[in-house]
Design goal:
alpha+beta, single chain, eight-stranded antiparallel β-barrel, 9 strands, Lipocalin
């Protein structure tokens, strides 16, 4: 009789757990803060790494960005940063080591730009 009562309790618990799992919305543990100034570290054109002298990517804490005169808003969606203005949208992948990889088509075909953020700038003690 004790086993029957334990089995009933287990079934009741599993039923409640399944209902809660389905009904409650999923939530992310923490939102990633990607705001800061990212310098172009490297570029790939036609699969070949070339020196990067591109303009910095600036992600502001208010959700706005600047890149080579292009201004708009950005949104972090999982492991992606979605950049957009009124006409153009682009996605850049967030990678470990404070890196953002932007792939786009330019005058030389598919170009991959790797931007890196310094966590602590030289001469400053505060973190970005």
């Amino acid at each position: 009789m004790g086993h029957v009562r334990a089995a009933q309790s287990l079934v009741r618990f599993l039923t409640i757990a399944i209902v809660l799992f389905i009904v409650l919305p999923s939530s992310h543990a923490q939102t990633v803060n990607v705001s800061g100034r990212y310098e172009c570290a490297q570029a790939k054109v036609h699969g070949k790494v070339v020196p990067c002298n591109g303009a910095p990517l600036i992600l502001k804490s208010d959700g706005r960005f600047e890149l080579r005169g292009w201004e708009g808003s950005y949104l972090v969606n999982g492991e992606w940063v979605e950049l957009s203005d009124s006409l153009i949208k682009a996605r850049a992948k967030i990678e470990p080591g404070h890196k953002i990889v932007l792939r786009c088509y330019g005058k030389h075909g598919l170009v991959e730009m790797v931007y890196e953020r310094r966590v602590a700038e030289l001469g400053k003690t505060a973190l970005i």
